[in-house]
Amino acid sequence: MSALHLTVLFSVAVPMGLGLLLDRIFGEPSHHHPLVGFGRYAAAVERLIRRVADGRGAGLLAWSVAVLPWVALAGSLKEADAWLGLAIDVGLLYFAVGGRSLAEHARAVGTPLAAGDLAGARQRLSWIVSRDTAELDEAGVAKATVESVLENGNDAIFGALFWFALLGGPGALMFRLANTLDAMWGYRNERYLRFGWAAARIDDVLNFIPARLTALSYALLGHTAAALRCWRTQAPSWDSPNAGPVMASGAGALHVSLGGPAVYHGHLETRPTLGTGAPARAADIDKAVALVHNSVWLWLMAIAAINVLIHA
Predict the structure, then answer these.
(1) Any idea which UniProt keywords this protein has (predicted)?
(2) pLDDT score, position 254
(3) What does DSSP assign to residue 157?
(4) In the chain, which residues have pLDDT < 50?
(5) How far apart are alpha carbons 120 and 145 in whole angstroms?
(6) What is the DSSP string of 248-290?
């Protein structure tokens, strides 16, 4: 392999692999997580800007003040020194991905569910989803957990990997902070309908390509024909333009039935059915985690290969 090929791999695939390895070994920080501090900073930005303005423009300004200075700082530090740049790339990707945490949360539901402890599974599920879990049966718990794994595969892993591949650590940081602001401000309620519009739309834009690449990855590594068919026919009916392809393809790839009615904050929401086959069971939780895990390996190998081919 030429020196140029080694340089290309070192600049993309190796830092990506190291960041993913750190996540696999250490997981998310249990104390003093940086996103907690960012959330407080973003809340302070919101309070400050709302004192003088509101609406979509104010929300866009708040998003810019909350996100762009940190991305610019990371970019400038990265350019200061090659080794510092490598450390920043690895550190920021580790900060941005949550693969181990996603698997741990899913298995914390799946283990008691498989053992017949429905109450315990419901409780652990309530920690990771916003729907009401108290009345869910075994299939309902399994379905909600598989849905969370598939959707958060994109939000917690593949979106960050995509923007890392394009822009390095600053790109992964931008994606993670934008995703966090969508979770904070992207609600369709009276308080955030206008102010949070920018956060929700920017998150949709940043996720548009990664979500479809995630859906394609799920399809390639599962029941491919069923996944592609579900993506094509079922995803357009889902409310979210990005979650729809990811969850429909994932459900088809796993050959399980997801979606359907769910209760959120006491209100029943009628959601379309996704996937094909029988309703999800406890065993399908581990299958969903494995699908995400295998997709990470697919992305890492594909990104390395593409960069070598481009510079061949």
Answers:
(1) Cell membrane, Cobalamin biosynthesis, Membrane, Transmembrane, Transmembrane helix
(2) 98
(3) I
(4) 1
(5) 13
(6) HHHHHHHT-EEE--EEETTEEE---EEESSSBP-HHHHHHHHH
| C-alpha dihedral, 295 to 296 to 301 to 304, nearest 10° | 130
Q: Are 304 and 5 in contact (CB under 8 A)?
A: no
Sole residue written with tokens 């997981």: 27
Spatial neighbors of 127 by CB under 8 A, at least 6 apart, are 105
Nearest to 62 by CA among 226, 161, 159, 200: 200
* Integer Cα distance of 4 and 36 in angstroms: 40
List, as one string, the DSSP characters of 177-207.
HHHHHHHHH---STTTTTTTHHHHHHHHHHH
DSSP label at 300?
H
Q: Can you say whether the dihedral through the CA atoms of 247, 128, 104, 159 is positive or negative?
A: positive
Domain that holds residue 68: 3-310
With a CB cutoff of 8 Å and minimum separation 6, the contacts of 23 are 94, 97, 98, 99, 100
- CA 235 → CA 4, 106, 188, 246, distances in Å? 41, 23, 21, 8
What residues are paired with 279 via a beta bridge? 257
Give pLDDT, residue 2.
53
pLDDT at res. 7:
54
237: how many CB neighbours lie within 10 A of its CB?
Answer: 13
What does residue 30 show for φ and ψ, rounded to 5 degrees? -80, -20
Q: Which two tokens stand for residue 110?
A: 């799946």
| Amino acid at position 190, single letter | E
Domain total for the chain? 1
Q: What's the token pair of residue 16?
A: 């990506």
Packing angle, helices 197-220 and 55-80, rounded to 10: 60
CA neighbor of 164 nearest in space, from 298, 22, 19: 19
Cα angle value 58/157/145 (rounded, 5°): 100
